[in-house]
């Protein structure tokens, strides 16, 4: 704008020269509070949502995860917990609308079991994913940033945990430790076998940015290590960390359900979950008869559904954090002034799921 | 050569891991709040064994002496372990080592097939998807791969068991070898073993879903590289380009991914062997956990870990043959 002939008149000096110092320029536009909020809204709400919504995989992923969240949070308020002999044994699904998904061999409503177990599983996911990702990120970032002896020690510990077969270790710990049925404790237990790989990955990411100018500057200013790691380095890795949250969540579900399926963790008959449902169906030989097939299928579909949701969500989050996709959004948003969405050329870039 | 230093360090790391595992199993038996060892002694005393004899029996079976101070007991335990004395199973009343020798080959048999088949399926399907990127085939296979990646292996295992074994009777429902056939190199026996292993192996195919997505991403990345354009300009044949340039560079990260998933596959064998009543390492470990048979449980866990750790070491050391670039680097490579 400075060199635009129509607007230069107030900038021209008596000697005919232009403004020499950029510090003397004052913005022509006053940014009102509303503008600022709109920018923040665009950066943190509109852009991610718009980017994500363009992608069919993201739409399915978000819908699925939202569905499970609603089922876990609101479902228990709407659907009463089930009891033994609530209905006839082995009602088929979609036949009797008092039991939409049918009942098990003791007449317990499978829909109610599924909904109530979602709450438990969500609790496990929350604590398990937070612990895995939190611990992995901190250990990895510290090892990568500090280097030297700290790195050697932390990396050795990480390597041990990477090499251990995670599930058998968790299984033994679950059998020996007094974990009980507390879902938060189960989540934390499951993170024992999972944080290593993430710590290793975070460490190598940190190695690439530890010599960047902003980190060097912070170090030069004498900022203490923990502040550099938490305020400078980890925010740069957030995209990576958030994507890993969805993977950690998926792993927690798989392993928690497996532990309950194997009946290694104790459970009360009042709190059945997907794993316990599978366990009881297997233990009562439900595979022998065709009438009991739905008893297996209901928890299986529940597990696969949330897992598909998490995979798709992870992939679409990858797009949200991808600077190139973001830049394209900002361009189209500036050109069209809003929600106009452009068909994506690289619609199918599935890179890393694991 | 630089390689030697790296290899020595990698082997040192393996030894360190094994030491940690042995220490961990000792600590779990001896120091745990529940005190499994004390529980075992109490159990025997309640069965009418006099206390001194009970302690002696427990010492024999766990190879840990409950009376000794912890540091001495620890040294004894490590000595026993190094001599291959893993204690005596409470439930089966035979040395843990014998049970392991009986069951480990079966687990390795199933796992090597799983690994082999899911690796090649993953590579082939991933390459197909990448080659016809964006086509109907790609969308279909990608959806299939995402669905496979979202299915826990035990869910697939249960479905296979229900349909292929119980409903349609194509494969046996349980066990690891045909009944009534003498073991040996007869067709009946070998085909029987293969039929028993088929369903556990097929369950692990879920791993190929995830792998094929990885392979697809790698291939697409390689397809956009400049050296492929150069290769084409040099007039190299399509076959040379696809095998020497695309496949080689896209398969390398897959190899790494499989090394990492090895531990998970070993862990998965616990659940699979339970579902199919396949008496391998995992089956015995789970049964030991149910029976609270601590010597067997810890022995199985130790051997499972040794197997995984050694497999990773071998794979790691051979990695430089597969990828010449990896030689001489640090342990960052895998």
UniProtKB/TrEMBL annotation, chain A:
Gene Ontology biological process terms in this record: transmembrane transport
Major localisation: membrane
Membrane topology type: Multi-pass membrane protein
Cellular component GO terms, alphabetical: plasma membrane
Subcellular location: Cell membrane; Membrane
Domain ABC transmembrane type-1: 118-314
Membrane spanning residue stretches: 60-79, 121-145, 157-177, 183-202, 252-272, 292-314
UniProt-annotated stretches for the region Disordered: 332-354
Assigned protein family: Belongs to the binding-protein-dependent transport system permease family.
Name of the molecule in the record: ABC transporter permease
Organism per entry: Halocatena salina
UniProtKB/TrEMBL annotation, chain B:
Topology relative to the membrane: Multi-pass membrane protein
Record field: transmembrane: 12-32, 110-132, 144-166, 186-211, 255-276, 296-315
Xref: SUPFAM superfamilies: MetI-like
Pfam families assigned to the protein according to its UniProt record, in alphabetical order: BPD_transp_1
PANTHER family tied to this protein: OLIGOPEPTIDE TRANSPORT SYSTEM PERMEASE PROTEIN (PTHR43376)
UniProt record, GO biological process: transmembrane transport
GO cellular component: plasma membrane
Keyword Membrane assigned: yes
Keywords for the protein's UniProt record, in alphabetical order: Membrane, Plasmid, Transmembrane, Transmembrane helix, Transport
InterPro entries hit by this protein: MetI-like, MetI-like_sf
Compartments (UniProt record): Cell membrane; Membrane
The species this protein was found in: Halocatena salina
Protein name per its UniProtKB record: ABC transporter permease
Keyword Transferase (UniProt): no
Family according to the record: Belongs to the binding-protein-dependent transport system permease family.
Predominant location: membrane
């Amino acid at each position: 704008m400075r060199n635009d002939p129509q607007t230069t008149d107030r900038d021209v000096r008596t000697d005919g020269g232009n403004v020499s110092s950029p510090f003397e320029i004052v913005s022509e536009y006053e940014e009102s509070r509303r503008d600022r909020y709109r920018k923040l809204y665009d950066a943190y709400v509109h852009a991610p949502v718009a980017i994500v919504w363009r992608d069919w995989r993201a739409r399915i992923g978000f819908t699925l995860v939202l569905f499970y969240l609603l089922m876990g949070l609101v479902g228990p308020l709407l659907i009463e917990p089930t009891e033994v002999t609530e209905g006839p044994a082995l009602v088929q699904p979609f036949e009797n609308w008092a039991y939409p998904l049918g009942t098990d061999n003791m007449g317990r409503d499978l829909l109610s079991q599924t909904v109530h177990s979602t709450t438990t599983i969500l609790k496990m996911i929350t604590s398990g994913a937070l612990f895995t990702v939190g611990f992995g990120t901190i250990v990895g970032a510290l090892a990568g940033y500090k280097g030297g002896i700290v790195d050697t020690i932390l990396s050795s510990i990480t390597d041990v945990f990477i090499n251990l077969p995670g599930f058998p270790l968790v299984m033994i710990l679950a059998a020996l430790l007094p974990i009980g049925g507390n879902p938060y404790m189960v989540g934390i237990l499951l993170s024992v076998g999972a944080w290593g790989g993430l710590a290793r990955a975070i460490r190598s990411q940190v190695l690439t940015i530890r010599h960047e100018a902003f980190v060097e500057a912070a170090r030069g200013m004498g900022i203490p290590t923990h502040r550099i790691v938490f305020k400078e380095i980890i925010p740069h890795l957030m995209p990576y960390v958030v994507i890993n949250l969805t993977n950690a969540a998926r792993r927690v579900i798989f392993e928690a359900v497996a532990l309950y399926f194997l009946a290694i963790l104790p459970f009360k008959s009042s709190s059945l979950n997907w794993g316990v449902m599978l366990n009881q169906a297997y233990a009562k030989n439900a595979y022998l008869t065709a009438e009991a097939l739905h008893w297996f299928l209901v928890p299986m579909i529940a597990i696969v559904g949330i897992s598909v949701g998490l995979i798709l969500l992870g992939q679409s989050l990858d797009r949200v954090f991808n600077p190139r996709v973001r830049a394209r959004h900002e361009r189209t948003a500036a050109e069209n002034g809003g929600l106009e969405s452009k068909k994506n050329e690289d619609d199918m870039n599935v890179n890393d799921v694991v | 050569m630089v390689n030697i230093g790296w290899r020595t360090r990698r082997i040192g790391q393996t030894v360190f891991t094994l030491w940690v595992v042995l220490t961990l199993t000792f600590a779990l038996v001896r120091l745990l709040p529940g005190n499994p060892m004390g529980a075992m002694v109490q159990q025997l005393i309640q069965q009418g064994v006099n206390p001194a004899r009970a302690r002696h029996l427990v010492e024999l079976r766990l190879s840990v002496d409950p009376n000794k101070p912890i540091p001495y007991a620890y040294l004894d335990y490590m000595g026993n372990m190094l001599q291959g004395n893993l204690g005596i199973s409470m439930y089966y009343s035979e040395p843990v080592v014998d049970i392991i020798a009986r069951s480990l080959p079966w687990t390795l048999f199933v796992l090597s097939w799983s690994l082999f088949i899911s690796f090649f399926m993953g590579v082939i399907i991933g390459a197909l998807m990448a080659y016809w990127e964006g086509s109907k085939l790609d969308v279909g296979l990608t959806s299939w791969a995402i669905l496979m990646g979202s299915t826990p292996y035990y869910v697939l295992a249960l479905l296979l068991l229900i349909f292929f074994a119980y409903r349609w009777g194509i494969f046996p429902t349980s066990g690891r070898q045909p009944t009534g056939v003498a073991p040996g190199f007869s067709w009946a026996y070998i085909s029987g073993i293969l039929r028993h292993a088929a369903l556990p192996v097929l369950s692990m195919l879920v791993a190929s879903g995830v792998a094929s997505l990885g392979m697809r991403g790698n291939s697409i990345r390689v397809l956009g590289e400049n050296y492929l354009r150069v290769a084409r300009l040099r007039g190299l044949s399509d076959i040379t380009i696809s095998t020497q340039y695309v496949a080689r560079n896209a398969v390398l990260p897959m190899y790494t991914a499989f090394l990492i998933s090895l531990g998970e596959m070993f862990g998965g064998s616990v659940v699979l062997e339970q579902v199919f009543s396949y008496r391998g390492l995992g089956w015995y470990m789970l049964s030991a956990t149910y029976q609270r048979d601590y010597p067997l449980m810890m022995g199985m866990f130790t051997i499972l870990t040794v197997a995984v750790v050694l497999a990773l070491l071998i794979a790691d050391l051979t990695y430089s043959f597969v990828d010449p670039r990896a030689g001489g680097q640090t342990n960052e490579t895998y």
